[in-house]
Amino acid sequence: MKQSVSTFKMGIFQFTPKERDIHANWKKVESATSETAEAGAELLLLPELWATGPLYEADEYLAHEIPELLFKLKVLAETSGIHIVGTLPELAVEESGEKLFNTTYVIGPDNTFHTYKKIHLFAPMGEDHLFSPGTDPVALWVPLRKAELGLGLITCFDLRFPELVRHLIYQGVDLVLLSALWPLSRRHHLELLMESRAIENQCFMAGANAWGMLRDTEFGGGSKIIGPRGEILARAFDGETIVLAELDMDEIHSARQDFFTAHAPRSWWPKANPKILDLPSLNTAVNRRRKAGQKMVFTNGCFDLLHAGHVSYLESARHLGDYLVVGLNNDKSVREIKGTERPINPESMRAYVLAGLAAVDYVVIFNDPTPLHLIQTIVPDVLVKGADWEEKDIVGAETVRKAGGRVARIPFVHDISTSRILKLPDNH
Predict the structure, then answer these.
(1) Predicted confidence band at 5 (pLDDT cuts at 50, 70, 90)?
(2) Which one of 3.40.190.10, 3.40.630.30, 3.90.550.10, 3.60.110.10 gives the CATH number of domain 7-258?
(3) Which 8-state DSSP code applies to residue 276?
(4) Neighbour-count burial of 140, counting CB atoms closer than 10 A to its CB (0-12 exposed, 13-18 middle, 19+ buried)
(5) Residue-level pLDDT at 155
(6) Distance between alpha carbon 189 and the CA centroid of its chain, in Å?
(7) Which of these, 48, 39, 30, lies nearest to 10 by C-alpha position?
(8) Which architecture, in CATH terms, is 273-423?
């Protein structure tokens, strides 16, 4: 049957990675890639950590072998004319030092190369002790022979967070790819969640899971390719196998003709005003979220003229927990700290601007010279200040540490301040 312009073929290679044996796993993937390409597929999806199997802290050395493997993958993708997708350990040097990430690589012909660092690490298997979490969702577009394909990337535990997939769909992706090490004991969850992500977003969903016994865990297989109505296009049960399916991207438009669920939120998107609370209301909200197991991050400041330094600081703070509370100095305390000509903006406007930021979940105005009473009332899990503060000088640090929390000091990325902005000449 002749393919339409919108149709392409993809494959999944479900297999049992040999533990800590990159060469043996490479040979399997090399063979599977050639077989999949010969069948006319333009994309091959592999399980999570397919080259190493599950990693523990003593296995970090394996990350040093990945650059050579990436080179071989690039050559294989180019000679086979196929995109290869799967996760590998990535050792990256950042400003804060060397970090290990569980990174999905998309490697294809014509120097196609994209990466996604796994955001949600699975603590029961110790991932949070070995890997650093990524912070950025990745939507990307790759050229196929007849069309461009929008891909969204997620890894294993990410599947349990529907808001991540929905965010990718807002960007316009057609196909969400999941690489997984999902145990047999919870395979039913894997199958249900993959189908749910496809149905609720009216998109294609493909998941490659490892199969077989690795260390002390039996992995469940169950790899699938699912259509935008939840139809199963291809399924792998037990064993090592390659499954193939043709995906017609026009099916997404067809599925969305009758009703459309994958649009970005409109009228219900969180507004600024409901985020601004007095202390009793905030304390109630905090207690409810604590009961739900969520970790609170707190910081405070004047935030008079909001600038890039403020925004990057607040975004970094938000990454340290589940929600961010900002304590805002009232006008009286700002005058005491900054002088009689400040604040430039009154507290109501400063609170509204802060609350309008996506990184900020709650704003509370405090009237005391310091936020100590506020901190003692809500008791943050993480107390954040700028790196220019010594920890011994941070108000509320002792309260937070005694409650089992921690204090974090965040460096400023942008060399700017409200005071410097006010001193700039009018023609700057």
Answers:
(1) low
(2) 3.60.110.10
(3) B
(4) middle
(5) 98
(6) 20
(7) 39
(8) 3-Layer(aba) Sandwich (3.40)
